[in-house]
Automatic annotation (TrEMBL):
Its EC number is 2.3.2.27. This is RING-type E3 ubiquitin transferase. Residues 14-77 form the U-box domain. It catalyses: S-ubiquitinyl-[E2 ubiquitin-conjugating enzyme]-L-cysteine + [acceptor protein]-L-lysine = [E2 ubiquitin-conjugating enzyme]-L-cysteine + N(6)-ubiquitinyl-[acceptor protein]-L-lysine. GO terms for biological process: protein ubiquitination. Keywords: Membrane, Repeat, Transmembrane, Transmembrane helix. InterPro entries: ARM-like (IPR011989), ARM-type_fold (IPR016024), ARM_LRRK2 (IPR056597), Armadillo (IPR000225), Ubox_domain (IPR003613), Znf_RING/FYVE/PHD (IPR013083). ARM repeats lie at residues 185-229, 229-273. The chain crosses the membrane at residues 120-141. SMART domains: Ubox. One of its GO terms (molecular function) is ubiquitin protein ligase activity.
Length: 304
């Protein structure tokens, strides 16, 4: 790890390295907690047959890496407190931070497959993002907040995209909030968003991510999604947007969750033509390694 510090100030030990090159994008190996392990990134790229220094490679977002937003905020706070500090290799600190993006949580039940996938979604003007962020944290006490946005603005693809993405983030790794979303009618509204905007990737992607996160390790939520026609909606979207790898990846994630949950889910997906749609997508995008991996994972779950 690089340990070249300002002559005045040293980085806190647990922030070593991310503050050096990854100020606003801190990838960490899944389940490694909040320790940024540069060796883990190097090992990841070595396993993929790319000897590049990962800190100079733009394609860090992958199936095995996720962004630790809490640590990124810690790094920002450190730099704000020590304005004379400039990380090694940086000319200045004026680099715009990315927005926190929707994430899809993958099951850790299957042997040798413990993954999370980060899907970047540009969510729009800051003012609306702030509202969505605020409303997302209100849902625990007021489940009608984001649900209200979806219900009252069905034809506004911009609102639908942002609200779906906020729900996806809210449902990530939180079964209690996921249950609240389902109880408030969130599944029906996510389906409606996909039906109302069948050709809008900016709506389909976060809606699918939200479904995937809601279904994660929850048989009840998965059953609610299947009952609402989730298998059919996902299959239709895959067929309609077969040229969009990002839509397909999110669809695979949702189908994987539903397939793991129950035999009823696997049956519904098969009857809706989901298996054939996955195979067609895999044939259409043979060079997309990430899509291939997630598609194969979904097929594996369907064959349980």
């Amino acid at each position: 790890m690089s340990e070249q510090m300002s002559s005045v100030q040293r980085e806190p030990e647990h922030l070593l390295c991310p503050i050096t090159h990854v100020m606003f994008q801190d990838p960490v190996l899944v389940d490694s907690g909040r320790t940024y392990e540069r060796w883990a990134i190097l090992k990841h790229w070595q396993l993929r047959g790319q000897p590049n220094d990962p800190l100079s490679n733009l394609d860090l977002a992958s199936d095995r890496l996720a962004v630790d937003w809490q640590k990124r905020r810690e790094v920002e706070a450190f730099v704000q407190e020590h304005l004379d500090y400039t990380p090694d290799g940086w000319e200045d600190l004026h680099i715009p931070p990315p927005q926190e993006s929707q994430q899809i949580r993958f099951s850790e039940r299957r042997a040798n497959r413990c993954r999370r996938m980060k899907n970047v979604v540009l969510l729009g003007p800051p003012a609306f993002l702030t509202v969505c962020w605020f409303l997302a944290f209100r849902i625990a006490a007021d489940s009608s907040s984001l649900i209200f946005l979806l219900r009252e603005n069905p034809r506004n693809d911009w609102v639908q995209s942002n609200a779906c993405a906020a729900l996806a983030n809210l449902a990530f790794a939180d079964l209690e909030k996921s249950s609240l979303i389902v109880q408030a009618g969130g599944v029906t509204l996510l389906m409606a968003a996909m039906q109302m905007h069948p050709n809008q990737d900016q709506v389909l992607r976060p809606a699918m991510a939200a479904l995937a996160n809601l279904a994660f390790e929850s048989a009840d939520n998965s059953a609610a999604i299947i009952l609402a026609g989730g298998a059919e909606r996902l299959t239709e979207a895959m067929e309609r947007r077969s040229e969009s790898p990002l839509v397909l990846r999110n669809a695979f994630a949702a189908l994987e969750r539903l397939a793991i949950a129950s035999e009823a889910g696997r049956s519904a997906i098969a009857q809706a033509g989901g298996i054939q749609s996955i195979l067609t997508a895999l044939k259409k995008h043979p060079m997309d390694a990430v899509l291939q991996m997630h598609g194969c994972a979904a097929l594996e779950c369907l064959m349980i």
